[in-house]
Amino acid sequence: MPIKKYNPTTSGRRISSVDAFADITKTEPEKKLTVFRKSVGGRNAQGRITVRHRGGGARRYVRVVDYKQDKFDVPAKVAAIEYDPNRGARLALLHYRDGEKRYVVATQGLKVGDVIVSSMNRVEIKPGNRMPLEQIPVGITVHSIELVPGNGGQLVRGAGLSARYMALEGKYAQLKMPSGEIRLISRLSMATVGVVSNPDYRLIRWGKAGRSRHLGIRPTVRGKAMNPVDHPHGGGEGRHPIGLKHPKTPWGKPALGVKTRRTKLASDKLIVQRRNKKRKK
Predict the structure, then answer these.
(1) What's the predicted TM-score (pTM) here?
(2) HSE-up (13 A, CA, CB side) for residue 191
(3) Number of other residues whose CB lies within 10 A of the CB of residue 147
(4) Residue 43 CB contacts under 8 Å (≥ 6 apart), including other chains
(5) I need a surface site. Which of 95, 125, 245, 255 has the fewest CB within 10 A?
(6) pLDDT class of 13 with cuts at 50, 70, 90
């Protein structure tokens, strides 16, 4: 959807932009499909901060999204396209013929009144329809892909993302992910045809720190601006470089550009080509 800019009445307004919300057809969520989200501030069950720079933010209610879409062969009508404060993509409110209502991640081009269906067999290839990869023609773009059959969509769910269906060989389908990585997914895994909605979300310029605070993102202080007791980069007179062979975290571990993926993972054999374009030998 289009991005909206305001007149530069303040310094923050001058460089910021907002979502126009032109595609939203319903402003209030379904009460039965929402749950309250308790703010944890980046802390785990023991109360220790495991993710820094989190806290505060606007109060949000979590929309209960149906990632499995396991109501097979029951046509569902799109009743509304809604905003979700917990993601960049839109949500589609589905009304099934038996009266049940569910939220799903909306596909680009989906409109109120459209009818979509989820099935284990091949159905019409149109945006929003969901079926196993073995039933989808090669070359189609898909999203909300199951990593393990039956677990629900886990891959390619962000705003404007899609994966390219490359080939079908034996037990696996070959998909090219948005990162450029080519990997094998079980041919029995479900996927939704089309591209995730709201592709212009990545073009929004937040403009000022206050908008990040509303999102629950707290300030980040540079390590080189600290004292040596607080960070390995700290200390020195005036503005100075890091002064080390390589950057480090506050706890002394290598940082900035260091590979964090664990080696010898079971899923390594399913990766045909890494996102850095190095082919698997």
Answers:
(1) 0.89
(2) 32
(3) 15
(4) 49, 50
(5) 245
(6) very high
Q: What is the mean pLDDT of residues 171-183?
A: 95
Report yes or no on 207 lying in a domain. Answer: no
Report DSSP letters for the chain, one per residue: --EE----SSHHHHH--EE--TT--BSSPPGGGEEE----TTB-TTS-BSSSSB------EEE-B-SS---TT--EEEEEEE--TT-SS-EEEEEETTS-EEEEEPBTT--TT-EE-B-SS-----TT-EEEGGGSPTT-EEESEESSTTS-EEES-STT--EEEEEEETTEEEEE-TTS-EEEEETT-EEEES-BS-GGGGG----SHHHHHHTTBPP---GGGS-TTT-TT--SSSS----SSS-B-TTS-B-SS---SPSS-GGGGGEEE-TTSPBP-
Q: Residue 220: inside a domain, yes or no?
A: no
Phi, psi of 214 (to 5 degrees): -65, -30
Q: What pLDDT shows up at residue 39?
A: 86
Residue 247 has pLDDT above 80, yes or no: yes
Q: Tokens for 43, please give them.
A: 């802390």
CATH code where residue 146 lies: 2.40.50.140
**What is the residue range of 114's domain?**
3-201
Tell me, what amino acid is at 23?
Answer: D
Residue 263 domain-assigned (yes or no): no
Task: Kindly state the tokens that stand for 232.
Answer: 């390995």
d(CA 183, CA 275): 10
Number of domains in the chain: 1
* CB-based contact 196:108 (threshold 8 Å): yes
| 33-89 residue pLDDT tens | 999 988 899 999 999 999 999 999 999 999 999 999 999 999 999 999 999 999 999
pLDDT exceeds 70 at position 1: no
